[in-house]
Amino acid sequence: SALVVAIVITSIDLQTRLASSVLIGLQRNDLYAIFQTAGAALLFLGVTLGFRLGMGLRGFAAVMTLGPTFAALCSWVSYRRLLPKPSLRWARPDWPLFRQMIGYSLSTILYAAGAVVLYQTMKFLAALRCGGPAAAGQMGLAISLAQTLSVVFTPAVGVLHSRVGQLHGEGRLAEVPPLLERAFLVLGLLLVPSVVFLVVDARAIFGAWVGGSLDAATLMQLAATTRLLFVGHAFYIAALPLYYALLGVGEHRVFGLGMLGIAVLNTLLGWLATSVSPRIETLAAVYGLLMLALAAGVTGPAGLRRFQLPLRLLEFLSQRRTFAF
Q1: Planar angle of CA 158, 223, 299, nearest 5 degrees
Q2: Is the distance from CB of 146 to CB of 119 less than 8 angstroms?
Q3: What residues contact residue 133 under an 8 Å CB cut-off, 6+ apart?
């Protein structure tokens, strides 16, 4: 019954997601971030109070599913204030534009499906090949910690989507390469030390998080798994500027297909690798290698070709070295 509640509320909530997309398209990520943060705080408060008042599984499912609705409603009110009145009137559907939107959305759906298949099958393989539900739970913990990198870096890089889309619409794509150069510089300065810190201190982080409920051997296994996931996720994040730039010009299908293909390949290679070494570290190592392949073999070449970045990046780095000396 809790699943039915979650499905019904989600089907209603999905209709409100357009408001958040419009607000981001207006480049008001600051407002969107405020609404998301406030919604998360309210969600935490609702769950905490609900459990104290005896909330059951159905109530928990309803609260968790309704959580994103707050940000969507705030976004709806905001974009109606920001947009001119004529743009809010009813109009006949523009079918060519609708078909274009469907094609654009399909690439995003492929990427989302790839991400779901990728992470869920890793937990499935951990349960099936590496020790049952306990191994699946440990893999889930490691994935959750590794994905904290996305929580920090994805919103920061995601602003490229709306900005590149604006430049594309105004016919100013020549300004995209310098924008990407700055994005890569800032991302590198923040991502590299963050990953090094998390890789070195993964054992201490898990010890502080769940150390009291796990034995030393399990903690070591979790730390080793998470280190490999951190490295693989770093490759994925390093390519995000190119992904969002391609998304801004509507040419991100290669990344959607690549993510789905990598997810399927990760499942196949994970199955084969765990037949030799049935450990969750093996699954993490396969994931890391395939994230490197996705960034270096799919997203990187597609973005570099589209925005003619190889020579520009070399020139940019040489200028920085000259300035440093």
Answers
A1: 30
A2: no
A3: 127
pLDDT one-digit tens code per residue, 146-192: 888 777 787 778 778 778 888 888 888 888 888 888 888 888 888 88
Tokens 């104290």 belong to residue: 52
If one counts every other C-beta atom within 10 angstroms of the C-beta of residue 142, the result is 29
Using CA atoms, how far apart are residues 124 and 111, in angstroms rounded to an integer?
Answer: 20
pTM of the model: 0.73
Q: Smallest Cα–Cα separation from 141: which of 224, 68, 197? A: 224
192-211 pLDDT tens trace? 898 888 888 888 887 777 76
Nearest in space to 257 (alpha carbons), one of 122, 83, 109, 132: 109
The 8 Å CB, 24+ separation contacts for 78-84 are 78/23, 78/28, 78/31, 78/35, 79/19, 79/22, 79/23, 79/26, 82/23, 82/26, 82/28, 83/22, 83/26
Token digits for 192? 């590299």
